[in-house]
User: Fold these one by one.
Assistant:
Number 1:
Amino acid sequence: MALDWFSLDGKVALVTGAGTGIGAAIAKALGRAGADVACHARGDGAAETSAEIRALGRRSIALSADLSDRAAQDALVGEAVGTLGRIDILVNNAGMIRRAPAVDATDEDWDLVLEVNLSAPFRLARRVGKLMLAEGGGRIVNIASLLSFQGGILVPAYAASKGGVAQFTKALANEWASKGVNVNAIAPGYIATNNTAALRADPTRSRQILERIPAGRWGEPDDIAGAAVFLCSDAARYVTGHVLLVDGGWMAR
Ligand code: NAP
């Protein structure tokens, strides 16, 4: 049955930033596809997502870690493996944005955005990848952005971080493809989440963005979830090093 190729039965996933937005949608979709899921948030924000996944009959735990802190990044993987036994799927979703003209951008904001959006995903992928290589397989999905391709407006650190996410996705994919560990990224378009609240609150930017989206609407977090299930499943076994746009046609325009 072709649909069996999409099943995640028996797999264990770690999803960062799973308390809200895209991460919560992905974590729940992985659970619906059959996976047990460790749901991470900065604080205790992933408890609800985790409870919804347990209600499906899967195992799930909520974990906390401030990903701007390297010791917390390092501890997170051990906590997930310690509770759920292993990790077959890592979704590096947590991310942040700071908006300011480049001349006003502070070193602190630059360093923070690069740490949370780029260094933390790489360091988690390195740690989890090592376990996956020892097991002979695994799936890593990094959440990139349209700003992996475009420069954006007033968000230079965010654009730099997401450009880096797309590039390290390909670098790890090349190294690990022959060892059964597939590394891909999803580049969401404009999705209605906390991340884009400032844009949606600005009537001019909001209108300009909407007018450019061929699909004629902002995306919802669930619009990203199907692509994540696909990339984590056997159906995508020969897909690696890819940055999958899920953007309502934005980049095609
Ligand atoms: P969101 O609701 O703001 O989600 C961001 C998540 O990242 C939150 O769960 C947040 O956790 C977590 N996070 C942020 N800083 C953290 C830190 N220092 N330590 C630990 N966790 C941290 O927005 P979203 O749109 O769903 O964003 C998810 C991902 O999609 C991000 O990587 C974002 O860059 C990317 N993305 C979004 C869009 C879009 O249009 N929305 C487009 C392209 C890419 P807490 O809530 O616990 O702080």
Number 2:
Amino acid sequence: MTEGKVWVRAGRDKPLRQGHPWLFSGAIAHAEAAQDGELVAVYDSRDRFLARGYWNSKSQIQVRILSWRDEAIDYAWWRRMLSHAITRRTLGAGDTACRLVNAENDYLPGLIVDRYGDWLVLQALTRAIDARKQEFADALLELTGIVNVYERSDVEVRQREGLGESAGVLRGQEPPATIEIKQAGIRYLVDIRHGHKTGFYLDQRDNRRLLRELAADCGTGARLLNLFSYTGGFAVAAGGVKHAINVDSAYSALELAEANTALNKIPAASAEFIQADAFDYLRHCVSEGERYDMVVLDPPKFAAHRRQVQRAARGYKDLNLNAFRLVKPGGWLMTFSCSGAISRDFFQKIVFGALVDSRRQAQVIRQLGAASDHPVALTFPEGEYLKGLLLRVN
Ligand code: SAH
């Protein structure tokens, strides 16, 4: 296949020269022989080589850069890049799961690979990555020795690439209903076929561990409200608190949360699983005058686009306002946003607004983010989607 060529408009090459991996259609002067999903060489307006990437005319992001060097992008190249990403991860003693490839942040735009024990889950977000997924499965087997690769490319963003959803076995066996993993020493069951993302929110590993430490300090009488619990990640990590309430709108998530609680030998009587809308449940708790030592707020992405930011901000404010009202003086609020369109700074302002309305006081004890197996390339600020605050509420 001949390689296409793309010329960047004069004055529009700075981000690319500085290492940003996206070239938008508006920055492109013209393209020659570029085919969707195939490689292109990128040149500046004076015909000097800038980078090599892959093309998709259907996407606003028409080129995603793979290399800033004039080198061949062949199987050996992909394998080398996968190897860099994978060897930079070290599984801690208490871990059998981690993100191995974090897309643009590992210089492999559009590709996510997560490891769950003896299974790999691959997510192909773009056409070029989708077209090469068999090759990736081969390379991953060579590099990790893991024979089972499951695909979870059933995500909406693929529409922007002109792709439908795709999921199923890429290599090896059909996965069982649940796979047991360990994260920071805690055991979880993961449904890689139907679970969210690739099955589990691996990115919250360090924050769950932090909650475990806080819970230990709070003592055995502590009460935890875990909102948007999914499969109970935070509550199970908190371990032997007196009472943990998990709230989620998805019944299947709560079923796994209950199973995870039992798996970690947490007494059934100390945990509750409530299928409810978290906004309503918070209001209910406020009206009942409930109080908790720890509240975790980990909602789904409210803003997928910039135009949803204001609505999302109102949602975050409402949640945080009621959460502040529920925390015992001296207790903890761990609050998150995973909306890429909401910056860390803006999120903190929203939480500030909620605090003012609640008439409480709070101290930032820590800024929170994704675990270290979810690196963010400094040249790719879009990579920082998860942001959070650990607050002591007075
Ligand atoms: N804290 C979780 C991850 C949360 S993901 C963990 O540690 O694994 C967001 C969760 O919010 C999903 O499980 C989703 O089912 C749930 N959810 C989405 N909208 C909701 C709503 N309005 N009320 C309650 N739960 C909701």
Number 3:
Amino acid sequence: MNASYDPRAADCLVDACVAVETEARYRDLPPAPSDRIFAVMENGQLLGIVSERQAALFPDRIFADLLLLRQPPTVAATTSLEQTLARLEEGPWDSLPVTNDEGTFIGVVTRLSVFRCLLQREQASRERLASTIRLLEEELTHHRMAAAVFEATSEGILVTDAQARILYVNRAFVETTGYTLEEVAGKTPHVLSSGRHDEGFYRAMWGKLLSEGRWSGEIWNRRKNGEVYPEYLHIDVIRDKHGQPHRYVGVFSDMSRDQEVQRQLYDLAFHDPLTGLPNRALFRERLTAAIGHAQRTKERFAVMFLDLDRFKEINDALGHSAGDALLQEVGQRLRSTLRESDTVARMGGDEFTLILCGMEHEGDSRTVARKVLAAFDRPFQLADRELRVSASIGIACFPDHGDNAETLMRHADTALYAAKQGAGSRWCVFEPGMGRRASERLELANALRAALDSGEGLHLAWQPQVHLGDGRVVGVEALARWVHPRLGPISPARFIPVVEETGLAPKFTAWLIEAFCGDLKTLLLTQPQDSLQFALNFSARSLHEPLLPDILGEQLGRIALPPGRVEVEITESSLMGEDSVQVRTLQRLHELGVQLAVDDFGTGYSNLAYLLRFSVDRLKIDMGFVSGMEHNVHNRKLVEAIIRMAESLEIEVIAEGVESETQRQMLLQMGCRKAQGYLFARPMVMAEFMHFLGAR
Ligand code: C2E
Ligand code: CA
Ligand code: CA
């Protein structure tokens, strides 16, 4: 670059100008890495120019067809940059053809190439101008002119320093991105990053930029208002006299106005990429629409929140790709289970939401919930394994449970939470008060944790079990008791579920076994009680602890109580669990020699096969049946059937909750030998129980 450097139009020709014949088609041209400008020639004469983007839009047309647009004027090779710019301003074009003295077409200049020349000239000038005011003035003019180009072009421009910190942006940049120069100056273009490209993308971009001096391609950026948009970006490196990068100039055009891109944008903004289902935003939109529609037509509809049980465990155990495959399959099953007019959306994670229209009757949503859960009956096929997955559903109905989106969603979520409290596959319809229960639970959990840590407020109550014929005591069941420091006694029916949900189960079980053995040690010290059977309750959750049999065995060893004298009460659902740890634990308890009783028998769904598989010793007939027996024939038949079935399997039965003499008589007649209930004794602390025994 010499001191009198004064570039002309011919100095700004772009490299990427390619001559094509009128009959040529874009489709047939070899692909090129950078943005080209096509000079359409006929017999050595220029007919006009076509940009790469124009040509790519109609790849099958011949180039002659693409010349329909108004063509830019031709400029002479010696035209000054100022004049060249003036011509560029005359029409809606970004490039001009250039001819030599003989009038022969020699190439094309663009706003960008002129701008680049101006920058170079500016730089050359700067070198010259250090000493003279005249040149300083010129520099100012050039600068202003560069700024004018900068501002006028419809493409966004940003210039950064060598560290990629933004120095200037033009008006189009501000219009496209929503950021002003003040907001981005000194920051890197990372502020525009959409998060849609991974690190590898940017690494490749910088690699190419530094090795080849330029990069161009499509990139997704983010506007200040959060909107993600695609742009066609071209970056040039401007080097200093030592060849080191001095400036980066990025020129881009916003492509989001293009229709196809619009559609992609819509998809992106409103759909979950993994399952292709509507996302949270679209779900909200549909829900609002459904409310509007239902208000006009006086129709009812249901919102369901569904999530998978133990999804996190599956994800952790089998890996994220299996987790993703499962979510996709779940999405498909939900979609194919429901009507086209219903909405199935994925909110994120393992949460799906449904909008079900036309729920005219009370029971409709329940029917659908059952149908949806039935879609989980079949195992899921993931790579080379079969997996059983259950789900829970929370339901809120319009208008009964809310008349706006917020409330309906909150209530469906609360109902889901309630459904999750039950074991296995379940659904729940929202009821007022559920929300309060949720926060109450949290408060209970905290107090309970403190009680388990200190041991304060917890003890066992012992309820005798008697022989129905002669009334002698044959066993005793330990029932947990908790006295809350502020709320007073809290029923185990309330706090046991809290124990289960909040991860307190291992702590609680440890406390239970210790208290059980502690109380029995006191009893056995004074009264041997050889004929008594001692029962304690284990929840399904506590059977997930593989060490449970060892802990129990060890503690029983300490008080020298043979395991055969101890009975573990479990619920029917514990027998049905498919969890292998749970199954192992039950087997090991059996091996240890403890007896197994099924609590609340008749309320669950267990079948005979389960009873035999785990060699159950006793069934406890649920007190609901016992209390219903007197007035309800159906109940009486059921109790009779249970007793007969147990007899044939050689399993003992004991009736729970016997409160009246009539019940006692009926049970005796049916062949039931043992019972427990207020008729005989209420649960009592160990000291009282010892007194009770002594009195007999
Ligand atoms: P469950 O194991 O079926 O215990 C019987 C429940 O019925 C006890 O209530 C007992 O006090 C009550 N009951 C006994 N006889 C009668 C009667 O004649 N009439 C009436 N109406 N009720 C009677 P509790 O102690 O409130 O326990 C409720 C449930 O809490 C238990 O039902 C059991 O499922 C659970 N639970 C209690 N302690 C423990 C424990 O240590 N571990 C576990 N996992 N669960 C426990
Ligand atoms: Ca029990
Ligand atoms: Ca029971």
